[in-house]
Amino acid sequence: MSGWRVTVRTGPRVEKLRAASLDEALELLETEARAAATTTRRGTIDARIRTFEPQDQVATRAELRGPRVRAGVDVRGDGSVQAWRGRLRREPLEPAPGEDAYAALRRLFRPT
Prior knowledge:
Elements: E1 4-10, E2 13-19, H1 22-39, E3 45-46, E4 51-52, E5 58-66, E6 69-76, E7 81-85, E8 91-93, H2 101-107
Antiparallel strand pairs: 1-2, 1-5, 3-4, 5-6, 6-7, 7-8
């Protein structure tokens, strides 16, 4: 696979974007997710058996794919953002003190 792919899913709408570099892909992902976070507000869903609060709902998922990497952010129904990594099992990335979800995602790609 050459380059980086960013896939943004909001409900049934899927937008596939390409970026030549990792920095460009991270910037594209952050721009798309921030736009979704400012406009996303969902109410509580009562499914009779279980109630889904806005913070429990994924309203938009922005996923980054590259060489041996799959990570992204979920924009919740209340507008909060959670970074994650993984393919089938998404492992939440906890922000360090002073970080937001986007900085936590970028930390994955810093050389150690």
